[in-house]
Design a protein that fits this description.
mainly alpha; Hypothetical protein af1432
Length: 172
């Protein structure tokens, strides 16, 4: 049953986006370490949804949908060709994501602002809506969480490999 603020309601809000071929293509690209762009956007969208759903003065629908599309740039940013400083991925990808998002669905002004300015202050022009500020925070939070999890897993793997090596040495 779909209840207010539930995972089911969240999934229903973005169901059409998740079924879209361009959105599905985000699974091909790594965002941070071993997390795909798709999973990163899904995580940011859910965090934004949970936060904005609790605050009646915020537009949780626009927030959730835009957050799912905020990194819809569809290329490997590590190999991104740049001609100038402001064409670097950190500065240019919100505009690319917005262009692609418009191909996926009709966006309202708030959704456009959220996508276009999610990298603020790098986007220089400040966000127009509170939701646009919120995504900047949750995008960074998610990035830090993904980075932390990657290094935590690496440490665990290293520790397990060391333990296995010790066991192997004991057998000899």
């Amino acid at each position: 049953m779909k209840t207010k603020g539930s995972r089911e309601e969240f999934n229903e809000l973005i169901k059409d986006l998740l079924e879209n071929d361009l959105v599905q293509e985000m699974k091909k690209y790594r965002q941070h370490y071993d997390v795909s762009t798709y999973d990163h956007c899904l995580n940011v969208a859910y965090l934004c949804y949970k936060f904005t759903r609790k605050h009646k003065s915020l537009d949780y629908k626009s927030m959730t949908r835009a957050a799912m599309l905020h990194d819809l740039y569809l290329y490997d940013w590590r190999n991104h060709v740049k001609q100038s400083f402001f064409q670097m991925h950190a500065f240019s990808h919100p505009k690319t994501a917005l262009i692609n998002a418009r191909k996926v669905t009709k966006l309202n002004k708030k959704e456009e602002d959220i996508i276009k300015k999610h990298m603020w202050p790098l986007t220089i022009v400040p966000p127009r809506y509170r939701e646009s500020y919120i995504i900047t925070w949750y995008d960074k939070y998610s990035t830090l969480s993904e980075t932390r999890q990657y290094y935590k897993n690496k440490r665990k793997q290293k520790k397990e490999a060391k333990k296995a090596q010790k066991e192997e040495n004991k057998k000899k």
